[in-house]
From TrEMBL:
Homotetramer. This is 4-hydroxy-tetrahydrodipicolinate reductase. Residues 127-263 form the Dihydrodipicolinate reductase C-terminal domain. Residues 21-124 form the Dihydrodipicolinate reductase N-terminal domain. Keywords: Amino-acid biosynthesis, Cytoplasm, Diaminopimelate biosynthesis, Lysine biosynthesis, NAD, NADP, Oxidoreductase. It is found in: Cytoplasm. Pathway: Amino-acid biosynthesis; L-lysine biosynthesis via DAP pathway; (S)-tetrahydrodipicolinate from L-aspartate: step 4/4. It catalyses: (S)-2,3,4,5-tetrahydrodipicolinate + NAD(+) + H2O = (2S,4S)-4-hydroxy-2,3,4,5-tetrahydrodipicolinate + NADH + H(+); (S)-2,3,4,5-tetrahydrodipicolinate + NADP(+) + H2O = (2S,4S)-4-hydroxy-2,3,4,5-tetrahydrodipicolinate + NADPH + H(+). NAD(+) binds at G26, A27, R28, G29, R30, M31, G94, T95, T96, A121, P122, N123, F124.
Amino acid sequence: MTERTATETTTAAATSASELRVAVLGARGRMGSEAAQAVRRADGLQLVAELDHEDSLEVLVAADAQVVIDFTVPSVTEHNVRFAVEHGIHCVVGTTGWDHEALDRTRALLARHPGVGVLIAPNFSIGAVLAMRFSAQAARFFESVEIVELHHPDKVDAPSGTAARTAALVGEARRAAGVGPSPDATEQDPDGARGALVDDVRVHSVRLRGLVAHQETLLGSLGEQLTIRHDSFDRVSFMSGVVLGVRQVVSHPGLTHGLDDYLDLGL
Ligand SMILES: NC(=O)C1=CN([C@@H]2O[C@H](COP(=O)(O)OP(=O)(O)OC[C@H]3O[C@@H](n4cnc5c(N)ncnc54)[C@H](OP(=O)(O)O)[C@@H]3O)[C@@H](O)[C@H]2O)C=CC1
Ligand SMILES: O=C(O)C1=N[C@H](C(=O)O)C[C@H](O)C1
């Protein structure tokens, strides 16, 4: 958005002081535009700025945003979060690309800014959150586990953040239970047909026109298979999680990784 528009939204926002003032980064993107719409429709939230590629992060400060939602690209999301935290703005982050080092740097940053909350959620849909949990729970009971993620072809990263997180949770659960890696006799794979190895778990990425976001965890033992599949057919599936995240992040200082901690899953 232009600076003039940002000022206009700021002025309009000043009339409802009790509402949570929310800004969206990546607002012209597939997820950012949907998130801006969800904020506009949500009770108690007020959309005060919509920023995209060419906009200065200073607009967040000018708009007096309390929470920023980030759906941008992996290469800039950590920088955006650092700016927000340093200005006392809570963050709800859906952008992928957060490795262990980036998470650790953000924890260290937040330790210097007590009171600020950052939620980094690989997936905001309840079905995907549950599928990740179920995959981790089932992982130790099967000899083999592999993950297949399937997305629209405009996605810039592979494997998906959800698949990487699922693999990490599955790998952690298997290690904790003393279960070794899935058996695999492959000796020759010059073209990478066996997929990526993430935390000792094979992850396969499909990019296909017509798809939105889908994932299968395949678990196999002698004579049986369990498939845990989740499908997002529409980006609206992520929006109740995004709105929940915005409402909760202000009372959850520090770093929260995954929406699970804000939900009572009863698991
Ligand atoms: N956690 C979850 O539940 C979900 C996460 N995602 C993740 O969200 C991210 C965005 O996905 P999607 O919306 O499909 O991608 P899009 O490419 O549609 O949107 C990204 C937007 O960010 C903009 N952008 C790029 N750089 C900056 C910057 N420095 N500052 C502000 N805006 C910037 C882009 O602008 P321009 O095009 O001009 O470069 C674009 O408008 C991805 O990492 C994706 O994996 C997606 C769905 C669900
Ligand atoms: O880019 C997407 O579309 C999605 N990205 C996230 C990911 O990488 O896991 C979440 C969901 O799969 C959609």
